[in-house]
Design a protein that fits this description.
The chain has 112 residues and is α+β, with helices and mostly antiparallel strands. Helix content is 38%, strand content 26%. It is built from 3 helices and 4 strands; from the N terminus they run E-H-E-E-H-H-E. The longest helix is centred in the first third of the chain and has 17 residues.
Length: 112
Amino acid sequence: MPYKLYAYWSAPKPEDVEEFERYYAETHVPRAAAVPNLVAINTTRTEDGFEGGDTDHYRVAEMVFDSAAAMAESEASEAWATMRSCSGDIIERFGVTLTVESGEVVEGSGTA
């Protein structure tokens, strides 16, 4: 069963947005994409909250694996350690927070 890791980033200070975005796109995402067993990676810069409300997160990343076991195997890799270290660098450098969650994917049809 597919398994996803979700990474929720808080917003950097307005004066750091451009540099955060550059570093995230050019450094962090390629490091995350290098993790073994990764099926897909999707990143979103949230702009609109539900029904016009505020957003809870600035960026959301989804890392997709074939299973929880595949992700667990990846966690032991050098690429995973590099990605984690990079996350720590982002937190320290830009003063943002990171919340990470994961779980099995259950797909629905989208129709009533």
